[in-house]
Each structure stands twice: as structure tokens, then as C-alpha cells.
Amino acid sequence: MKKTISILYIWLCGFAVCSAQGLLTVKDAVQIALENNYEIKLSQNDLRIAEENTTPGNAGMLPNVTGNFSQNNSVMNSSQVQASGETRSLSNAKNNNMSYGVSIGWTIFDGLAMFSRYDQLKELKKQGEYELKRTILTKVSDVISTYYTIVEQQNLLHAIDSNINISKERLKTAENRFMIGKASRLEVLNVQVNLNEDESSRLRQANVVKNLKINLNSLMARDLAEEFDVEREVEYDDTLIFGELLEKAKVYNPDLQIIAINKRIAELELKRIKGGRYPTIRLNTGYNFSESESSLGFVSSSNSRGLNYGVTASINIFDGFNQRRNERVAQIAIDNADLMIDQQDLLIRTAMSTAYETYQTNLSLARLEENNAQIARQNLNITMEKYRIGTISAVEFRDAQENFINAVSRFNSSRLQAKLSELQLKEMIGNINL
Fold first, then answer.
1. Which helix (H) or strand (E) covers residue 170, if one does?
2. Do 411 and 12 contact (CB within 8 A), yes or no?
């Protein structure tokens, strides 16, 4: 039994190396999710749309070239009275008109609004990049959190397995003590009840691990029933410094970056609207061909071809004060963007302050629970020796056994919480490294 307890302690503290077939590392899980996750793919497609839209033509900076063709035919009963008084008439007179050509129109000045639109498209592309980054950060965080939760719950399952082995050894010892008259039948039954309780706990815990693995497979967008093993260690970074994290968050946090881009877009929108105060100048040119035939008239047929060109200019003189109203609304949108930047900055500083305090607490708990697990192990060894020689009851041994399992479980849980706190802080600064 002492050997079993020692092996159990080694397993639960993570000193053994997992060599099972089908091992999935946390890096593998993240890589698979980056390749397969549907939300990441959707965000990538949104970015591709923004990239396709970022063109001078979409901003109205390039000319429009149009090909034209038209043909009109008519059959009419016509009658004409000429200046000489002569009357001419014709039934079913045919008239045919056909024209075709190419026309070009180019707005060369619109109050610089086209340049503002182009800059807006560039900012929308940047916004798509940061939204993709935010989606990736969220999904990577979800994958890592789920992965290490599986590690913690899998270690708890191993603890329950080892606990069952200890309970089986206890049952053998109790039966031997009963056979030589040193224990009552009641003691044997109590130990049997404890063993049944441990086996029932294992079934529930195995179900927890199975469901977590299904969730991780879902995040990786692969077969939900695919089996895999996980690492046994939960390694966390205990060197994070609040001041450094806060400075990085101001520069790299995707939410802050997106709000800053929204302000820039609002400023460009105001610039575009102000362009309405200036004239719009448009060049027009084209080359056209036309042909016509008439059964009745002075000209029976005609055709022409040639170049046409010109310039048009227009300016808004009065539009019911809508120009002024639009400018004021655009300025309010800029003011709102400033407020949102300040609000988001406060939210991030608040969230990081609370997360860092939790991080520090979890680090302290991890160190404390590691020491508690060692003490509980020593206590279990001593209790086991006393139980073997019959100086304590099975109930007292069960208490020591449960205390040890609980202590080691709390140790694993504290390491997981420390890792999750670290992960939360790194997600806020926009940099999750493995």
C-alpha cells in the first residue's frame, strides 16, 4: 500500500512523462484550431472582402468606360405637307435608327471626397485585420483553457483510479483482519462501501473528461469522437509584471485598436461630407457611330461618326441645411469615438487590475497547495502504518485517504487556475505565447 501511495503522488504531481499513443500537445491543438476553426475562417473571409474592396475604383477615383448600342425601328403610315403645298403620304413607311459607341466619364474633383473614401476603405481593411486577430486570440484562449482543464480533470481521474487501488488494498487488509479476529464484519462492509463510492466517482469523472474532449474537438473542428491523450503537466508563467502588461495592452489590445480605427473612420467621414461644399467637376468624352434610314422625307438615309467631349461642373448652393446637419452629426460621431476610447481604456485597466490580483492569489495558492499535498502524503503514510498494525480504525484511515486525494486535487486545480489567470492577462495584451 505504501508503494501504491508513492506512485500515486508521483502521478498527481506530474513528475511522470506521458508516453501514451495519440498524445495531443497544446501546440498541436492550437495549430489544428487555427487551420480548421469555423469562426476563424469566417473572420478571414471578412478580411478578404475588405481587401477586395480597398481599390481606387471603389473609392470613385478612376474613370468609367461604357459601351453603348441602340437600334430603333418603326413602321408607320405617314403624311407630310411640304412648304410648296405639295402633300406626300406613304403607307407602312419604315424608319430605322441605329447608334453605337464608347463613352468615358471621369470625376476629377469632388471636394477631395474620393480620397477620403479611399482612406476609409484602407481603415476598414485594418479593422478587419484586428477583428481577425481578436477572433484568433479568443479561439486560441478557448483551446488552451479547455486543453488544460482536460489536463486537470484527467489528473483528477488518475487520482480516483489510484484511490480505487488504495481502497482495494484496504479491503484486502480489512478482510484479513476480520479473518484473524482483529476487525468486525462492519469494518469490512464500510470499506466495501468506500470502494463502491470511489468507483462511482470514477464513472462521473470519466464522463466529465469525455465531454471536455468533445468540446476541444469541436473547437478544433474535427471528428468529435476522436480520442487523444493530453500532457500531464500544467506549466504557468509566474513572472508577469502588471506595469509591463498594462503598457503592452495600450499598444496591442485589439479592442482598443478597433475603437481607434473607428475614430479615424469617423474623422474621414467628416472630411468626405465637407467635400460637398466644393464643386464637382466631371470630364466626358466618347466616340459614337449612328445610322438612320427613312422611307419618307427629304433624307432617305444618313450616317455619322465622331468624337464628342465636354466638361460638367456642379455645386450645391442650398439643400435645406442638410450639409450643415450632416457635418454636425459626423462631428458627434467623432466625439463618441473619443468617449469610447476612454471608456475601453478604463475597462481594460479595471479588468487587468482584477485579473492580476487573481493571478497573484492563484500563484500563492499553487505554492501553498503543493506544500499541503506533501504534508497530506506524509500523513497518509503514517496513517497507513498505524492501520496496518491495528492502532486506528478504517474510518480514520479513510479520512486520511480522502484528505490526501483532496489535497492533491486542490494542488492540480490551483495550477490550472494560475494558468488560466496568466492566459487571461495575455489575451488582454493581445499576445498569447506558448
1. helix 113-179
2. yes
CA 53 to chain centre: 22
pLDDT tens, position by position, 168-192: 887 887 788 788 877 678 878 888 8
Round to whole Å and give the CA distance between 153 and 151. 6
Residue 13 — very low, low, confident or very high, per pLDDT cuts 50/70/90?
very low
Do 60 and 88 touch, CB atoms closer than 8 A?
Answer: no
> pTM of this prediction?
0.82
* Nearest-angstrom CA–CA distance, 99 and 18: 81
Q: How far apart are CA 66 and CA 366, in angstroms?
A: 72
Alpha carbon distance 18, 230 (integer Å): 8
- Per DSSP bridges, beta strands 64-81 and 280-294 are unpaired
At position 117, the amino acid (one-letter code) is R
Q: Domains in the chain and their CATH numbers?
A: 2-68+109-280+317-428 (1.20.1600.10)
Question: Is residue 242 within 8 Å of 352, Cβ to Cβ?
Answer: yes
Grid look-up 497544446 returns 26
Cα separations in angstroms, 322 against 164, 207, 302, 407: 79, 64, 49, 71
Mean pLDDT of the region 128-149: 95
SS3 427: helix
The secondary structure of 271-300 as a DSSP string is HHHHGGGS-EEEEEEEEEEEEEEESSSS-S
Nine-digit cell string for 185: 464484519
Number of H-type helices and E-type strands within the chain: 9, 4
* Size of the chain in residues: 434
Output the nine-digit C-alpha cell for 40: 476563424
Positive or negative torsion for Cα 396, 398, 399, 404? positive
What is the H or E stretch that residue 272 is in? helix 254-274
The one-letter amino acid code at 16 reads A
What is the DSSP secondary-structure string of 368-425?
HHHHHHHHHHHHHHHHHHHHHHTSS-HHHHHHHHHHHHHHHHHHHHHHHHHHHHHHHH
Identify the helix (H) or strand (E) that includes residue 100.
strand 87-109
Angle at 350 between CA 349 and CA 351, to 5 degrees: 95
Q: CA 190, CA 187: separation in Å to the nearest integer?
A: 5
pLDDT above 50 (res 8): no
